[in-house]
Amino acid sequence: MLSDLTLCVYRSRRTPVAQLRAVVRVNFEPNEYPKSIAQLYHWTPDECIPEFFTDPSIFESLHTVRRRVGSLLSSRDY
Q1: Which domain holds residue 64?
Q2: Which of 7, 59, 71, 78 is the most buried (most CB within 10 A)?
């Protein structure tokens, strides 16, 4: 089972900023979250959420300060 913190990071593009501030950190800094699938995998290679495979919208950001996550794995993302 994943922690609330991990779930919020994985779902950060679809999670309201207020919830990110409550669970992750008070000062929301978009650059502290993974910018690509490669970075997500690098952080936790043995974990993921089902939405990564079933819901492409998980990679689309609700936030104006966050862009869509890069979908291609690239060594330059590490």
Answers
A1: 4-77
A2: 59
